[in-house]
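testing teh design pipeline on a random one, pls ignore if ur not involved
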């Protein structure tokens, strides 16, 4: 059981990394980017096609390019309407488009790379070094994001852009620029998450929506306004997923994370009072 929990915690840190762009976008623009899973998929696909460190750089660049397309769409939509739901729906459409492109170019073959041929053994516990590396990278990025949002001038600008865009513009804050920069940062984070998954469990062209759902669930389950809450949500989902994979059948395993999220939300962990504090 301990091995399942430990593996779930390692997986959960990557899920938190997928949730971070959701938190950043909500903090800055009061909406979410549902193309996060597509950025991860695209980065993994490109990195698979190009060997070596160049492939990693190309994968991250492709994720940034895709998020740049979303930033252009965001600016165009903001000129005609202030409703965040339109941006969210547009990002969902972009996600489907990217998945289709990956299917056309790379086909149905899975994307996976194994960096380490050995495993660490701690008694009865066997750990892949890639899992430890994933956890370390994800924790560092979560901590860095928290520091940026809570302790820097940029973080205050991001929060002001969502809380009072008109007032922020009067205070000489480039609201649209900050929001577009947040989209690009989300694309980079999604690309990093995709590369980490590529070198551990791998994925295929169908992974986009699943990764987006996991990231969204991890972001909202304990409150979307904090990177640390994203981390807690990701860890919780990772552990529940690992335990269900170890002790239940395959059909039940795919349902358990969704059921867990539903139970937590219905139990009042994400009540109306918490929404009022999501945006400063």
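output:
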């Amino acid at each position: 059981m301990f091995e399942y929990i430990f593996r779930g915690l390692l997986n959960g840190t990557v899920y938190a990394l997928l949730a971070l762009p959701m938190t950043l976008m909500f903090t800055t623009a009061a909406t979410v980017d549902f193309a996060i899973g597509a950025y991860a998929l695209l980065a993994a696909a490109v990195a698979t096609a190009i060997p070596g460190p160049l492939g990693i750089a190309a994968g991250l660049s492709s994720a940034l390019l895709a998020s740049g397309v979303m930033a252009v769409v965001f600016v165009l939509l903001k000129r005609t309407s202030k409703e965040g739901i339109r941006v969210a729906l547009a990002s969902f459409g972009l996600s489907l488009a990217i998945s289709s492109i990956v299917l056309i170019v790379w086909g149905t073959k899975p994307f996976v790379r194994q960096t380490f041929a050995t495993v660490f053994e701690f008694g009865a516990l066997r750990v892949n070094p890639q899992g430890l590396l994933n956890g370390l990278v994800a924790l560092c990025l979560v901590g860095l994001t928290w520091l940026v949002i809570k302790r820097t001038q940029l973080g205050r600008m991001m929060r002001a852009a969502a809380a009072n865009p008109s007032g922020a513009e009067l205070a000489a804050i480039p609201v649209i620029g900050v929001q577009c920069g947040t989209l690009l940062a989300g694309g980079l984070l999604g690309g990093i998450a995709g590369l980490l998954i590529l070198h551990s469990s791998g994925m295929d062209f169908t992974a986009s929506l699943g990764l987006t759902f996991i990231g969204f669930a991890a972001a909202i389950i304990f409150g979307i306004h904090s990177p640390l809450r994203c981390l807690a949500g990701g860890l919780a989902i990772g552990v529940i997923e690992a335990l269900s994979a170890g002790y239940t059948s395959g059909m039940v395993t795919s349902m358990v994370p969704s059921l867990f999220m539903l139970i937590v939300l219905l139990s009042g962990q994400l009540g109306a009072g918490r929404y009022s504090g999501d945006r400063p």
